Amino acid sequence: MIAALTVALLVQAAPAEARHRVDTTLTVPARARLDLTNARGSVTIGRWARPELRIEARHLGPDSILIKRSRSVVTVLATSHHDTDRFEAGTDTSVVRIITKPRPFRQPTIVDYTITAPEGLAITLSGNAVDVAIVDISGPLDVATLTGTVRVTNARGSLTLQTMNGRIEVAGGSGRLFARALRGSAAIRDFAGDVDAQVLGGTLDLHGIVGDQVRGISLGGSITLAGPLSANGHYSLSTQRGTVAVTLDQDANATVDLAASGDPVLCEGITESPRPSTSWRRFTLGAGSALIEVDSFAGTVRLCRAAAKTP
Q1: CB 157: neighbour CB atoms within 10 A?
Q2: Beta-sheet pairing, 272-273 with 122-135
Q3: Phi and psi, residue 58, nearest 5°
Q4: What is the structure's pLDDT at 66?
Q5: DSSP letter at 250?
């Protein structure tokens, strides 16, 4: 049995803010991993320059909060008159796990987490109805939810973001990104690195993606590609029934290969080059260094240059 040093803090029905909050900080080793599961509520994650992980949780309903800390486990026990929810943050040499455990036959408690993480912490996050906001983290990130908005800003590393019915928003950052919103939508802006983005029926907005390999897939929703491109990048856009709109900068150098059942909508100044094959049509802009492949089975394709900026 592991000897334990226990500290207990009991907050009785004092101010509402005090009895609904938990705040604890753990020292974590380099290359540690955070594994967080939250059924309902929100998760906000930021970064600081300390080798510590701060866990703040706000939850609704309990009359008291009991916090116990030992060498290996931090347990937060929230109790009310009728029910008990258990929030556990267990640690070993490399993993911190945070789990919300509702009582059987009871709707999960709403918990709002605020996490402050050290540099390089690997993060795995899962939940049902959860809004996620992550800012300025570096390290592997894996997020999976059923509903809610997953918003990631200026993250660096290997990023995997998945939602069933929610929305994914990525702004800034670099590395390698996989984003999948099955029945939701996704918007990715100003990301440097390879991107694989998939939606089923929602919209997919790709703006300012500078990467060697960029892929966007939609079954019935629309796809938009705009902004600057990687000079030698390969961009692949595919849809069954949706609309694909490609709007390139005035000085863009790109070859656009198009396979579609109907004629594309071309803006002024876009002219067709000789066909590379009977199935594909080609449009060359500038030096044509970047390659954009558009495959639309029954949708509409629009190809334009962005309006010139006024001096």
Answers
A1: 18
A2: unpaired
A3: -120, 130
A4: 42
A5: T
Q: Which one-letter amino acid corresponds to residue 218?
A: S
b vs e for 21-40, b when ≥16 Cβ sit within 10 Å of the residue's Cβ?
A: ebebebebeeebbbbbbbbb
Domain boundaries, the chain: 13-36+47-118, 148-311
Is residue 241 pLDDT above 70, yes or no?
Answer: yes
Question: Comparing C-alpha atoms, which of 171, 133, 175 is closest to residue 157?
Answer: 175
- Per-residue pLDDT reduced to its tens digit, 108-164: 678 889 999 999 999 999 999 999 999 999 989 999 999 999 999 999 999 999 999
Beta-bridged to residue 126, according to DSSP, are 37, 144
DSSP string, 276-299: SSSS-EEEEETT--EEEEEEESSS
pTM (two decimals): 0.83
Mean pLDDT of the 197-221 span: 95
Q: Give the span between the Cα atoms of 131 and 122, in whole angstroms.
A: 19
pLDDT value, residue 68? 44
Q: How far apart are the first and last CA of the chain?
A: 73
Helix extents (H) in the chain: 16-19
The size of the chain, in residues, is: 311
C-beta of residue 227 within 8 angstroms of C-beta of residue 254? no
pLDDT band for position 177 (cuts 50, 70, 90): very high
The dihedral over CA atoms of 13, 18, 22, 27, expressed in degrees to the nearest 10, equals: -130
State the DSSP H helix or E strand holding residue 123, giving kind and residue range, or none if neither. Answer: strand 122-135
Place of tokens 């089975």: 297
Residue 102: helix, strand or coil by DSSP? coil
Give the residue among 147, 135, 6 at the shortest CA–CA distance from 77: 6
Residue 295 has a pLDDT of: 94
The pLDDT of residue 200 is above 80: yes
Q: How far apart are CA 163 and CA 99, in angstroms?
A: 19
Partners of residue 276 on adjacent β-strands: none
